[in-house]
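WARN no homologs supplied; continuing
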Amino acid sequence: MSSSENDRRQFRRYKSDSILYLSFKDKIIQAKITNYSAKGIGFITDDSLPLSLVPDIHYKVRNLDLNGEGKIIWIEKATSCVKGGIEKKSVSGLLKHYPLSDILLDLQRSKKSGILDIRRKPIIKRIFINKGDMIFATSNKEDDRFVEVILKAGKITIDQYYQLVDFAKKKGKSPGAALVELGYLKPEDLIWSVRHQVEQIILSLFQWEEGKFMFIEGISLSDKVIRLKLSAANLIYRGVKKISNISYIKNSLPPLDTVLSYSTDPINLFQNLHLEKHDRDILFLIDGKRSIHEILSVSHLDNFQTLKTLYA
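OK structure emitted
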């Protein structure tokens, strides 16, 4: 398997039978999607299509809001049709079609480096990723600013907040430096506060059901970016637990009569995951025999909380 093919397989695929329009060299053909991911699109068509690979094509899928540039990277003739696969020029899409947890796992497994840009006008949040690991995050939302976040965390009082803002403005200092100089935070507490801010920015994104994302790959991260070691497992787990839309959770899970068991593939298993006791109790009910419905019937949590734990 080539490295590019292996890279594509790191991205979760979703089944679909949507209509796909391909245009290249002044030619437009209609096809049907077999599956899609943040990285590519699989398709099948009855139209004539050259069996040689097409360097550049434009693809459009109206009901999935897919519209962009890519290239056909494989193609084969079947008995009565042509099958193929498109690699998108960018890892991008809309959050309503790609759960954030899947995007973060896809990027981690593919060991990519760059910036995941997520927007919901006028808010822009960015997650900095180094070799698949989340290391930092920024936001232009006022509530996500460093001082606001540590105020909400109870690290400073409201009086200290106003004194800090005034002091930092007059002295031209960063909020972090001002916090330490004023004695509101010890130097060793500063890293915890920065980590907490970054985690809160990432966790808040799990509650976004609308928005668009794009992964900007191949850019060098500034030396000014603080490189934190963030646990993807714990952030995804905590983020999913913040989701309040039961329809979103139900639609993300398989049918209730599905029997659950643990994956045997090491790539799907997280070692560094800190579960709350009631969630551990739910996971102990997964034995390869019980269905989701049966787990719901014996869980000590309500159905929604149990479903969130299973999904997380």
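The longest strand covers residues 66-77.
OK
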